[in-house]
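Below is how a single chain appears once it has passed through the pipeline. First comes the sequence as given, then the structure the pipeline wrote out for it. We keep one example in the README because the format questions we get most often are answered faster by looking than by reading.
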Amino acid sequence: MAVLNPGKYMELLPMDVKFALTKVIHVLEESFIGLWMPDRLLKATYHYIRNRGKLIRPTLVLLMAYALGNGTGIERAILPAASVELIHTASLLQDDIMDQQRIRRGVETPYSIYGSHTAMLASDLIIAKAVEFAIRSGDNDIVFELLNSSIKLAVGQSLESELSGRDNTTIDDYLKLIYYKTASLIESSMIVGAYSVNVKDNEVISRIRDIGRFVGIAFQVRDDVIDYLNMDSKNPGVNYDEINIVRIMSRDNGNIEDAISKARNLLNDMLDNAIDAIRKTMDNEILINYINLLRI
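Resulting structure:
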């Protein structure tokens, strides 16, 4: 098992996707230029834009647009990709507040530096800008997809609060939680990538939704195993009040190794399902190789 360097994800991308991702980053960095706001709010708003992660969600938007558009039309996916990343960024700010998270990606969080009120207002600003970018894409299907995904994220945050600290959380509870809190936005990332190149066939969209859900579940299971084993030096290990699949699977017999093995099997089964659905929908080994990086 290993925590991959972000460069590994970039190595697999076609040049057109890398170039488009550079444009997405530029859009994100210019998001609030010309809008005056107090310095603390400005810094909190830009914190995760500048201290960004692997940009997996906007990359999935671009990869899907690249695959379904046969390498053309990827420019139309830039604003939707930026919108997706802003929605994710807002969810991090809210997550920090609710979990009282002080370190993320190896640095202090906006919640820790500026307080919960400023972090909350920053998340409001970012969500508003995400909606603006979705509208500017010119496609109502993209707008409604991302609005619906934002609703699911809020539901997921609430469900996590209800389940945290309980000692009777089931695997079904866990799967529902991670769908709403993580997989739903990854699912929407792939959908808006398809919409960006005018793919609207219901059967194709349904398959892409399945792909995104499978990848999103795998993504969160992987993070849970990494957190449980304290493998990421930039982030603290698992908080024992949080919902974690390893702890749920080991609760009855205390066998951590067996629970980790089961979690890895679930992760890899989800990726197998995603790859099977990709091959039924499109010819895209690049996307397959990209999501295969999640295997542990």
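The radius of gyration is 18 Å.

See the next section for the split statistics.
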